[in-house]
Amino acid sequence: MTIKYNSLKSLAFDNSFIRELPADPQSANYRRQVFGACYSIVKPTPVLYPKLIAYSKEAAALLDLSEDACNDDEFVQVFSGNRLLFGMEPYAACYGGHQFGNWAGQLGDGRAINLGEVINSRSERWTLQLKGAGATPYSRNADGLAVLRSSVREFLCSEAMFHLGVPTTRALSLISTGEMVERDMFYDGNPKDEHGAIVCRLAQSFTRFGNFEIFTARNDIKTLKKLLDYTIHIDFPHLIGHQNIKEELTWQSYLKWFEEVCIRTADLLVEWMRVGFVHGVMNTDNMSALGLTIDYGPYGWLDNYDPNWTPNTTDRAGRRYRFGNQPAVAHWNLAQLANAIFPLIGDVEPLKDALNLYSARFKDRWQTMMRAKLGLKSFDSTTDTILINQLFTLFGIAETDMTLFFRKIASYDFTSDWFKSMSQISEKMALLKPFIESYYEPSQLTEEYLFKIVDWFSSYTKRLEKDSRTYKDRQDSMNLVNPKYILRNYLSQLAIDKAEAGDFSMINRLLDMVRSPYSEQPENEEFAVKRPDWARNRAGCSMLSCSS
Ligand code: AMP
Ligand code: MG
User: Which residue's CA lies nearest to atom 3 of ligand 1?
Assistant: First the structure.
């Protein structure tokens, strides 16, 4: 089917969320607890001098928008919140959440304003949401605004994740507001004025675990049921066939839904582990009911493989959200969602079974993912668990760049015969040559380490030979799962440093780079390198605060 490219004026809205779900009866925009409602009507706050910094043409295509439409002044006015299109009905959603393991009560869209739901030419539903467009009833004591640095990070990472094949909310546009926003970045009593910005995000739905939790916490089972019925009807219609949206669903449908959320979440977590992504704030209000990566805040990408690393400075003490703990936290979060829908199911056992489904699915998909990263045809539990664990142990002995190492391993082509013919360790070391660039500390390449890694390569070689796969076939398949280009923290920071000085060129260059993470990009070779030394302990590169 050919897509007819639209201008903004021809976007077709169908605002089901506000049509089908109960609204906050109050329309004045002041901070409050909102009861018995899924959302509050609220308009974006106009901004003084909006300027388009970047847009994603792939995200625009989801709305059937042409690049001409994105470069039109109308686009800047609409996606800065200054103008509403016909059919837009802005609102902020009510949700709660567990933050760092504790129930935090009402949170809600404190600085996100949904503009409406577009139905595109493929009949897909895309909710448009501005992040940083001003205060809402859910803003608590904050301002509802967002600064340039965090907006650049959200914009680029959303699109980077999409191109990597990781489920995610999308980013349509990045617009500076021309207004300053005060932030105390490290919460140390040194507030500074920063440039304000707004990202327009897209997702089939922005519903989070916390949207359900809030109603159960308030014993408002009636609204809980309405939200879950709605969510299944709109976002999970395959679970119920074509039923009328007004039809009430039964506990069997709720259970099927929860099982699917468990499966999707497991698959999402496997993807994060594959590419070395650390979300940084896996609170239940930041967990998408659709299994998408959502709310890009103090996230980070692993440079050297370190399962204990957390990018979030607020998480430094407990490291709850460290890379290696993410699958367990997702399970914990799913258990909170199970508690939230328990009143609609009335039986603990099937919910427990569904949570076990998460664990089983995660294990299964993780093994499949790891064997793909290593270029193995299928997972052999007698050998491969040990092989993988040994490799991770080696990563811990000598700091190894995860992305570079896995990318390079596709070019590894030694045979067992070669190992036999090379009797000296010094001869066998030839195999490490392509990997040298993946190491951060040459002093860690001790003799003991070298013996161990040569040993590992020897086992790996034998394992590859069991598969009798051609080198080319293995290499091609590995290059589809081991990216060459990721949005390293220091790269985003370089783009932010320039943007804060008024030069947005690197944002667009990185957007271009993240479009083809698995391809060779000779013009971007300089970005496919390990984190430089200056970035090891720099704010924004290895430490991110929640301030945004
Ligand atoms: P986060 O940790 O970014 O997921 O945010 C947790 C809660 O705080 C959500 O309800 C956000 O909407 C809200 N929030 C974060 N930053 C702001 C802000 N600058 N203004 C208003 N609300 C905010
Ligand atoms: Mg959030």
Answer: 297
